[in-house]
Amino acid sequence: QILIRVLNTLFGREWYFGRITAAGLAGLIHQPVSTYYVINKKQNKKIDSKLYGKAVLIKMSVSIEKSSGVSLQSYRDEPYYVSSVERNLTDYLYLYVHGHADIGQVKDFYTNLQNNYQGKINREELIGLIFRCYPKGSAIKMATIFKTVNK
Fold this sequence. Notes:
Strand content: 15-25%
Number of strands: 6
Order of helices and strands: HEHEEEEEHHHH
Oligomer: single chain
Number of helices: 6
Shape: globular
Helix content: 40-55%
Strand order of the largest sheet: 1-2-4-3
Low-confidence stretches: none
Largest sheet: 4 strands, mixed
Mean pLDDT: 87
């Protein structure tokens, strides 16, 4: 709750839990989250705190709105935001396009989603998110990469 309050104070509504943190919160992995990945529009920073644990702030030029695959949750009346599985995968694609993830991470995440996610990944939603939420130049590259990963 303390971490959520700090993030809300720092970023307002312009942040969400992504990457492995979102997968943990969605129940896709069944192990405690040791590092909190926070996607935001303001800063990149790694924090290792005895109070908060490990947090990695990842600055991205992305849309964080109602239709962007980010949902509002609440913990003890404290609102926080978490990415859907489709948005999480698009974030991995974005990070790959910009040199902050490797293709192996993207493929592994996609394979794990395919094998473990109850239901299917909504590919139409994923492509829609790419073109709705990311800069156009990045979106075109992301869609191309997704086609190769999705084979």
